[in-house]
Design brief:
The structure is a homodimer. Chain A has helices at 10-21, 36-45, 54-60, 70-80, 82-85, 115-122, 137-141, 160-174, 188-193, 195-205, and strands at 2-6, 25-30, 49-53, 63-66, 89-92, 97-98, 106-107, 127-131, 152-157, 178-183, 210-216. By secondary structure, the first copy, chain A, is α/β, with parallel strands linked by helices. Chains A, B: Keywords: Oxidoreductase.
């Protein structure tokens, strides 16, 4: 499958590398066609990896992963352009973290609005699916690393068919065992608002390699 | 032990009833000395249950549970008075829920501030410990109801000794098996910010009887 990955940070590189390892063709997009980190990533990841602008990656991919920072997400999608994103599924992993007030970061959305909703509102002809944003990058693509994979991933989005496709992708490609469909894209407020707890747990547990499992009656 | 419980809602009644069943003497506090719901609760809960004003409950209790609504928490503590709360542990279960913008509720604190911090700042000589606010009332006092009690409770507070006492109380009295000490009272931002996800999970799971378990490396 041809996949576009927006973002050259740890999340983009981890997702991109895993997708190439799974046999997919991956184009990493950034603001410039030959971003240094993207070029280095593509060289390391192998023949099925390439890089380009956000528009190049969007045009290339049948499926798009948004792995930019939260603050850079809307700009990345705008640079890609509504035309090349039209009708496609965009898996939004970004979190609305605001580092301007010191550490730990606060949120610039998540209470009465969410970043997922902002992206969906700005690109109504794209299927924005919010998921994977509640774990560290390595757990996203390798949930089996902790607890034998016995923990949960949340998923939010308006389009039921697109959400089902992403759920299937997460299960078959990354190995997720349990998904909870929270509902439409407004439920991204829930998972984005979870970040402050996630950050405090990272501090308390002294490792980012953790996740939650749902225990219910 | 003599315990004061602020609030006559479902949380206050559930906590109060459990404490009486455990053999404690409990005074339920509200704005008026003979609040109808508090009188009815005390009559039903038995000889060790009584009711009074917030100040009465604060004066009575060696330990205080704040089970008011988030919006009413500061008023309740103000009505109790700093004198009667001085040197005591106040277990703050309230959440900063704002119902004014429709359902599900949004938060009036939790991002750059938390309700737990506001209470601690207003009553610096009281040990405010934030905990129990991440599960429904029945699970607070009976964690064994789901998953054999194999799930987690978070705890936040500035005073290490007070936090240890509350942790011991939760374990020995309510049956909690696993506590995660998130740190000082600023970490209440984490658990308060989790509420939007909790509310969405309630919708998705179709039951409030659930909690999370930490899975880590």
């Amino acid at each position: 499958m041809k996949i576009g990955v927006f973002g050259t940070g740890m999340v983009g590189a981890t997702i991109g590398t895993k997708l190439v390892a799974l046999g997919h063709e991956v184009k990493m997009g950034s603001r410039t066609a030959n971003n240094e980190k993207a070029v280095a990533w593509a060289k390391k990841a192998g023949a099925k990896a390439s890089q380009g602008t956000f528009a190049d990656a969007a045009g290339f991919g049948e499926l798009i992963f948004n792995c930019t920072s939260g603050a850079g997400a809307l700009d990345a999608l705008n640079a890609a352009g509504a035309g090349s994103l039209k009708g496609k599924i965009l898996i939004d992993i970004s979190n609305p973290l605001d580092f301007s007030k010191g550490m730990p970061p606060t949120l610039f959305a998540g209470n009465t609005d969410s970043l997922g909703e902002r992206l969906q509102a700005a690109f109504p002809e794209t299927h924005v699916i919010k998921t994977l944003n509640t774990v560290t990058a390595e757990i996203m693509v390798n949930p089996g690393r902790i607890g034998g994979g016995d923990h949960v991933m949340f998923i939010s989005g308006n389009d039921t068919a697109a959400k089902a496709k992403v759920g299937e992708f997460l299960k078959t490609q990354f190995g997720w065992k349990e998904l909870v469909d929270l509902g439409d894209i407004t439920t991204a407020r829930g998972t984005e608002s979870y970040l402050p707890l996630w950050l405090r747990l990272w501090g308390a547990l002294k490792t980012p390699y953790f996740n939650v499992k749902i225990v219910k009656e």
